[in-house]
Each structure stands twice: as structure tokens, then as C-alpha cells.
Amino acid sequence: MSKAFETIVILDFGSQYTQLIARRIREVGVYCEIHPFNVGMDTLRGVHPKGIILSGGPSSVYEDGAPHCDRQILELGVPVLGICYGLQLLSYFLGGRVEPSSRREYGAATVNLTGEREQSRLLAGLSDGFPVWMSHGDHVTVAPPGFEVVATTENALGAVEAPQRGWYGLQFHPEVAHTPDGRLILSNFVRGICECQGDWSAASFIDAAVARIRQQIGEGHAVCGLSGGVDSSVAAALVSRAIGDRLTCLFVDNGLLRKDEFSKVLKAFREYGKLNVKGIAAGERFLGALKGVEDPERKRKIIGTTFIDVFQEEANRLGQIDFLVQGTLYPDVIESQSVKGPSAVIKSHHNVGGLPEKMHLRLVEPLRELFKDEVRQVGRELGLPAPLIDRQPFPGPGLAIRIPGAIEPDDLLLLQESDNIVMEEIRNSGLYGELWQSFAVLLPIRTVGVMGDQRTYERVIAVRAVKSVDGMTADWARLPYEVLETISRRIVSEVRGVNRVVYDISSKPPSTIEWE
Length: 516
Ligand code: XMP
What we know:
The chain is an alpha/beta fold. It contains 15 helices and 18 strands. The chain is 33% helix and 25% strand. It has a 9-stranded mixed beta sheet, with helices on both faces. The protein has a 5-stranded parallel beta sheet with strand order 12-11-10-13-14, sandwiched between helices. Strand 11 (247-253), helix 7 (261-272) and strand 12 (277-281) form a beta-alpha-beta unit. Helix 8 runs antiparallel to helix 9 (296-317). The two termini are 39 Å apart. The structure holds xanthosine-5'-monophosphate.
């Protein structure tokens, strides 16, 4: 991608905010890439960066094994901005002084400009006394020779610059929401100082991606497994724009989808009209394989291998296929190249894992550079229907992991009906878009109830609704009591076989979002 777009490189020193820097820069219309701090100079030169940002990080520049990038980045002749640890490293390289703060500075602070506002290119347009977010143990106490201190906080210097050399530094974090003017500062750097024109947009990405896909696939044929979710839909729509009917999309009904999901999603794809989609009804096959299986991981495995078998059989029927399209996103790519080593998080949602090798398929991953919000923009630009773009995530194993223990076909119906009520009421309340996920879980127990004059002994539904940015951590949603009340009343009165509804008030960690 870097050849097609003006590119800013972010060197990652291990800050939890590195991805946020990238997102903020893309938001101002400039493409950027995250590389590990120790990226080789040849790789870096190959990217032709218009500027380099050194991220924050948890280390101290003097400590043994502290991450240092190659000093030669300062000789590339492009502007460099150090943020927090990045600034400390610049100071260390260039002869400033870095010292431990008397106490770790964490939280809100106010930054005062030292000189005339117009003098600073980095802080152009900001008012004196702007609020920022600090998070550091060490700080720079003496700026390196040739640098001017353009802003200070109560305890430390806030921003320094050496404009003739193109070197800039911030002690605070411009990328976080708690620094309201942070986006302007980053924009000043990438669009002002680095002179990027801002050529990154959903439309320009689509043009570049389509050209690249055509080049990769040539006259070949590709297949894509649709899940009904946004990533696979957008990946398929992009590839379809590039190679038309030489892409076939397979949408498998595993019998574990939400109520009417298979028909609704197929209808949405058909209405979109630009995808060659084949629906495969394989519910009985999946449920047969799952019969009597209680262990969550075994359930997942069986669903995964059955999916691969079904997918492979269908793909074989299509004749010669050379490529498999996958909706891999940038956070997965960054994670796999992270200097911190492979992530401890186990991602089990690669539903077609193992297929490429088995079928000798090459991968096409057109969304590898994109964050989730960018994928949604690209989807909108491609004209995909809103319900596909704005859908909450839904796990590959579907309702199977929302029925703890063995799955009875009748249980699936109970869950589908209850879940459908949850979704209707969440949508009616206008909260759907604010929630990462909202759904029902059918518990494997019965409780006593009373309905009319009758004693009942029936099942329990747990309602789960969470807020999250990426699914890695999540907070249980404080749903209004009225919404919970309606959901509970409707489930108990409309779903025969359920006499109790409970609300899950656990966050992740220590719980997970799904119950299995
Ligand atoms: P947990 O339950 O681990 O879920 O907190 C985090 C996110 O991942 C989804 N999830 C899955 N997605 N296959 C998938 O495709 C799976 O096996 C799977 N398990 C969990 C879950 O819905 C949530 O968004």
C-alpha cells in the first residue's frame, strides 16, 4: 500500500496507545503503518515515509534492554515526532536529559504555551492552557541542544521542537480522547509539517485495492466464506468489484444462526446484487455431529472441522479455484508482527483455518491495512446494505456456545425465540449501535415459577449486553430497567418453556463475553 499513498510510519515502542495514534492519523486522511521499533532501515526506506512518529512505551530509555530504534532514522531527512517515550528517546539520542519523575505522572494536565502561538508549527491553532493526558514515569528535564521548549506543564516540559531539523516531541499523549485537541496536533504534524496532502479515504483505498487484487488474482478464480458479518462481506464486495463473477461466495447455514438469519442475510446479499452468493443449508449435518457433545472446546472443534468439510465439498464443485478471500484486519496483522511476541489471546474465529493448505489456495486479504471503522466506511462506499455493515459481531460457532452443554434441537428453538426478543427490544430502544454485542443464553437448568394458578418448572434465559472497543475487554452494559423489564416480560410470556430471565452483570475480564 505504501507506494500508492503518502505514508507516515509509526515505530512501536510498546505503548498501549500505538494503534490509537494510527487511527487518529488515518482519521485526518493520511495513510500510516505501524512497524516494530527495531525495523530495518532498508524496510523503512522502502516505505518512503513522509514522516516518522516514535510511540510511547513502558520502558525507561536508560534501562537495560530498553527498546531503541536505529539512530539513522534521524538522517532520513523526514520529520520525526516523538511522543512520551519517543520524546525521551529523541532526547537521549540528541543530548537532552531524561530523569525519573518524582512520582509517576498519570492523568489530566494543563499545557501552557511558552511563546507566541504562531511560532510553533506543531501547536498551531491551539489556545493557551489546553488540557492533555499524561502517562509517564520518566520525563525530559532538559531539552537537547537546538530544541526550543514551546509548551510546559506544571511539572515538566510539554512540547519541544527543532523545526530546522524537522524534529518534534510531546511529553503528553495527543492520540487519546482525553487530549481533546490531540487530533489537531497530529494533523499539524502530518499535514502541516510532513506536508501530506491527505490522499487516504475509503474511495481512494477502494481504487488502489481493486487494482492490487486484479494484479494478484490475474485470470484466476476465488472463493470466499461469508459469515454475514461486516469483514467477510466487505472483503467479498471488494474482490467482486475487482474480478466480478470469478469470485464465488459461500454462505453456510450451520443450523446455529439466529432466528431467520440465513434467509435474511441471503436476501440482503441478493438485493445488493453484486455478489455471486451460494447459500448452503447444512444445519442437520452440524447438529448431527454435535449430538450429545458437552465440552465447549470439542463443540468448537466439531463446528470448525464440519465447516471446513462442507466448504471444501462446495468449493470442489465449483471447479478450479486458486484463491481464498479472507477478511483479516490490521489489528490482527499488527498483533502477529508485534515485538512483544505472539499475543496471548487465542483467536478461534478463523473459521477456515487449515483450508488454504488443504486445498492449495493462496490467500487474498484485501482488508489487511484497515481498522474496523475503516472497513465499515469502505463497505458503505461499496454500497453494501446498512444492516450488514452495522451488525454486531456474531461468533462462528453461533448459538452453540450460548447453550452450555449438549445441544437439543428444541433448545435451539427456545434460544432463537428468546434471542429474537432481545434483539427486537434492543433495536427498539435505539441501543443496538452502542453495544458491542447483545444476546440471550439458554441455561441448562430449570427453576420453579408460577403462572396463573399453575406451578411451572422451566428453563432460564440469561441476557447479555456488553460495551467494548475490540472484544478483548468488555464492560457489561447498564441497560435501562425499562428495557430489561420489557425483554423479561416478553420472553416469559411469549417463549413457551422459559419462566425466568436473569441479566449477566459480569465484565471481561474476569468473565468472557460468551458463556462457553
Ligand atoms: P469471548 O467470549 O472470548 O469473546 O470474550 C470475544 C469475542 O469473540 C467472539 N467469539 C468468537 N468468535 N469464534 C468466533 O468467530 C469463536 O469461537 C468465538 N468465541 C468468541 C465473541 O462473540 C466476542 O465478540
